[in-house]
């Protein structure tokens, strides 16, 4: 047999959580092409403005021979970087001006985390991530760079509150004592999967902690524009980027790095384009660029994003409509959850809700959670199970509400059918136990 490296083989370790993912991924519902397929409410894919984005891309995709070249190298198209710098200036409100030279384009936020992990640590070093965490961070940190995602538990402490900072510090010292050198803290801000922003006190606490421990802070801010009002949170807190704080007051700014992408706010996961924004660390940016030739975004993706970012009249109508549709989808989903008495974490940002289905578990275990997830899949609906986010409790699921109405309705009906059946079975068992 031909030789395959240990580091590559390590990525193939069987994981029962992946089986359901690949089962559902390959048989997704489509009203025309696969009506019997599985409605995917598990993926953080905002599908509410796809028609508008598709039409904008098609109308403006007038490429020329330049787009067939390598362009100006791995940092990405200068025009796009300039447009993005001005978008960041407006939306992220950085305390220091962001320019095109502070930005490196690559093919997706996941690739940016991968490249940063590669640049920031040696194999076997660690990056701290709080539980529950965005599931993609596991491979992004580990698959190529071989850095360990070191999980931070919070117990009963709210992971987005200032009190959570201490848990990161404790995890840092535990790791060091176990011989794992921590190089960075990685946060998804706003929080995936909890669907809410961190408090300002938490973010400032993070800056101070990273300064004290002399480690990098990576803030993945891909949901910057994905906030929306609802009955649960009528006035969602505005998006706050770590770049908006007067960084030098809290930390050596060269330790702070932000990621933004087209995927979420522009409903375009498939275009594969994002940006690292690292204004104060020339050496890190050079190291990142040195590997970014492997993660270059296509010039066609760059062209699409550039066209969107520079079309001010379009953006002025796009974002209000985007947020209004999110409000509608969120209200529809949460009224269903309330009707069924399903506890959920009120969300004000992102495209999903973190819900609690623990009372539908056969027992308080990961296997029971997996069993419920398979049952949903067999009924034609796919939710993301809490265990894949390293949830500290069994029975949590993440449900993507930013789904077109008919698909969402069908998915929730299928979910309801499963939950009603499970409820009946549990009631019957209790009845038999009693007699
Ligand atoms: C917090 C976060 N970061 C990164 C990603 C991946 O983004 P991309 O598709 O741009 O790689 C996701 C996708 O769900 C995400 O939620």
TrEMBL record:
Which superkingdom does the taxonomy of this entry point to? Eukaryota
- Respond yes or no to whether keyword Transferase is given for this record: no
Q: Which residues form the signal peptide?
A: none
Keyword tRNA processing recorded: no
Give the protein name, as stated in the record.
Aminotransferase class I/classII large domain-containing protein
| Organism listed in the record | Exophiala sideris
Keywords from the UniProt entry: Pyridoxal phosphate
A Pfam match is Aminotran_1_2
